């Protein structure tokens, strides 16, 4: 195993500048053996982010006798803000952020001697936060990580839960899942299936260009920022069978695609990306067709849960209410955040709070 940037040589704590500086099997063995490990901790996912995104790896790793015993993935990247004027200020300040679990989800994975090795991980991450790092943020959907709540608070991290995942129990029959849906949603699924349709299931790499084109048009339509095609290509290459594209075809015409990730470590089928290119496609009810087909597929494949992925945690958010009607339960996305710049961080945090409050009022 090649060395990265050592932060505590006596104890084998390292910050890796590339996931390829550690063997895939060594890394993944720790991920799969831990209750906290997920697809987003795996070597392949981190390799895809490294290859396809403008992110610099800063993965904390603790070893014992050259074997990984604790890890905490993280990437350094530029600060992405919603206004060009704000971007200009950030560029002038020349700051970066350290993200643990974005894209995806993060959090520590520790196999032994947790009290000592968690300290080593966070000591290593803090050593990676040089003067240009504005903040470090951990994003985790694993509520088991609340075990680190008091520890992280003592280290200066603040917790927020403004985003949620809607997660559906699919460790049961399709009929039971359908019966648990809101009456309106149950009728919509049945109406969607009362037409000439089929749902095709393929690997992401089988038709990447068309899938990305539909995804990019979807994001432009809703005013979102699309992930780069290079990242999806890297995900297809690295994860292979861990990614599926569900395509709804009505009257012989494709009307939408959903990209799903197979998080077998957590037994969750994750609805990751939507690719419904045009508003007119909704006349064919692609959302109902795709979610229903993916849920049935997940049941057959033995998954315990189906994740509708992230949405704003607000009772009046239309997407939150729509997904809830499938019978899904809201699971908070835990964000632990610690400012690293004594001067810039308080100013940035205050400005961000004002922007969020105004956006909520205008919604």
List keywords for this structure.
single chain, 363 residues, Aminopeptidase, 5-stranded antiparallel sheet, 12 helices, disordered N terminus, PG_Glycine_Bridge_Synth, Acetyltransferase (GNAT) domain-containing protein, BioF2-like_GNAT_dom, transferase
Can you characterise this structure?
The protein folds into 2 domains: 187 residues, Gcn5-related N-acetyltransferase (GNAT) (Aminopeptidase); 133 residues, Gcn5-related N-acetyltransferase (GNAT) (Aminopeptidase), CATH 3.40.630. It is 37% helix and 29% strand. The chain has 12 helices and 16 strands. The protein has an 11-stranded mixed β-sheet with strand order 3-6-7-9-16-10-15-14-13-12-11, with helices on both faces. It has a 5-stranded antiparallel β-sheet with strand order 1-2-4-5-8, with helices on both faces. Helix 10 links the parallel strand 14 and strand 15. Helix 2 runs antiparallel to helix 9. The N terminus is likely disordered. Keywords: Transferase. It comes from Halobacterium jilantaiense. InterPro entries: Acyl_CoA_acyltransferase, BioF2-like_GNAT_dom, PG_Glycine_Bridge_Synth. It holds the Pfam family Acetyltransf_6.
Low-confidence runs = 1-10, 83-89
Helix content: 25-40%
Main β-sheet, spatial strand arrangement: 3-6-7-9-16-10-15-14-13-12-11
Distance between the termini: 50 Å
How much of the polypeptide forms β-strand, as a percent range? Answer: 25-35%
Globular, elongated, flat, extended or rod-shaped: what is the shape? globular
How many separate helices? 12
For the largest beta-sheet, the strand count, sense and barrel status come to: 11 strands, mixed
The count of strands amounts to 16
CATH topology of the largest domain: Aminopeptidase
The CATH superfamily of the largest domain bears the name Gcn5-related N-acetyltransferase (GNAT)
Radius of gyration: 21 Å
CATH 2nd-level architecture of the largest domain: 3-Layer(aba) Sandwich
Please state the structural category: alpha+beta
Following the backbone from N to C, one meets helices and strands in this order, namely EEHHEEEEHEEHEHEHHEHHEEEHEHEH
Mean pLDDT: 89
CATH class of the largest domain: Alpha Beta
Q: What's the number of domains?
A: 2
């Amino acid at each position: 195993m090649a060395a990265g940037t050592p932060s505590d040589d006596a104890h084998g704590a390292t910050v890796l500048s590339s996931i390829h500086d550690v063997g895939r099997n060594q890394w993944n063995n720790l991920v799969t053996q831990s209750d906290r490990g997920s697809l987003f901790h795996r070597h392949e996912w981190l390799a895809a982010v490294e290859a396809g995104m403008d992110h610099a790896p800063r993965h904390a790793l603790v070893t014992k006798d050259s074997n990984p015993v604790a890890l905490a993935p993280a990437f350094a990247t530029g600060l992405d803000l919603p206004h060009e004027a704000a971007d200009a200020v950030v560029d002038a300040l020349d700051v970066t952020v350290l993200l643990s679990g974005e894209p995806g989800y993060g959090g520590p994975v520790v196999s032994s001697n947790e009290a000592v090795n968690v300290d080593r991980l966070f000591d290593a991450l803090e050593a990676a936060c040089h003067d240009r790092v504005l903040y470090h943020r951990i994003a985790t959907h694993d509520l088991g990580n609340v075990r680190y709540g008091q520890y992280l608070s003592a280290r200066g991290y603040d917790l927020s839960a403004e985003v949620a995942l809607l997660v559906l129990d699919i460790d049961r029959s399709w009929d039971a899942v359908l019966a648990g849906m809101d009456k309106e949603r149950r009728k919509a699924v049945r109406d969607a299936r009362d037409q000439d349709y089929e749902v095709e299931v393929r690997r992401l790499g089988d038709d990447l260009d068309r899938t990305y084109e539909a995804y990019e048009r979807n994001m432009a339509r809703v005013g979102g920022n699309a992930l780069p095609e290079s990242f999806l290509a890297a995900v297809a290459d690295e994860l292979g069978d861990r990614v599926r594209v569900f395509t709804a075809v009505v009257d012989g015409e494709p009307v939408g695609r959903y990209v799903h990730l197979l998080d077998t470590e957590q037994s969750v089928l994750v609805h990751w990306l939507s690719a419904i290119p045009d508003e007119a496609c909704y006349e064919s009810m692609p959302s109902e067709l795709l979610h229903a087909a993916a849920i049935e597929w997940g049941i057959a494949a033995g998954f315990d849960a189906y994740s509708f992925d992230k949405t704003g945690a607000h009772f009046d958010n239309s997407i939150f209410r729509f997904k809830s009607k499938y019978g899904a339960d809201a699971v908070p996305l835990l964000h632990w955040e610690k400012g690293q710049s004594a001067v810039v961080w308080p100013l940035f945090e205050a400005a961000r709070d004002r922007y969020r409050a105004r956006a909520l009022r205008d919604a």
